[in-house]
Known about the structure:
The protein has 143 residues and is an alpha+beta fold. It has one domain: Trna Endonuclease, Chain: A, domain 1. The chain has two helices and nine strands, in the order αββββαβββββ. A six-stranded mixed beta sheet has the order 1-2-3-5-6-9, sandwiched between helices. The radius of gyration is 15 Å and the shape is globular.
Amino acid sequence: MRPHYETEADQTREAQVMSRIAERSDSIIAFHKISNISYGVDFWVRSNDGNCVMEIKCRKNKYPFFLIAMKKIMTARLWEDTGVHAYLCVHWAKDGSIYIARPFGEDATPYSTEWHGRTKQGRGDESDMEPHARFLLKDMRKI
């Protein structure tokens, strides 16, 4: 079994980002942290438009693109297939900006795929090398 790298500080940052998104939204009624990792997303969101799920990633340095493991795209597809919209969110600590993508649906955000990972950047975990989705920030919705 692979190690779990998410820390309590990571979860706190994700909750703060979700709160900011909710504050800036006219349609979000409530949100709940999903603690069970088998669901593959961070939050269940109830809104005027129906229920949805959201995966939140917090990144330090800002790039003109957002990379996320393809497993998250595949999880989003499962949610969408059940009729629940799935959103991917990235918060850039460098400038505090938040961008949101929806990989499927009528308003889908385009993305490309590539092989990527963090093996050379510090953890030394070969399993970190995997297929990723690349979203260009210019195609994502800025909050």
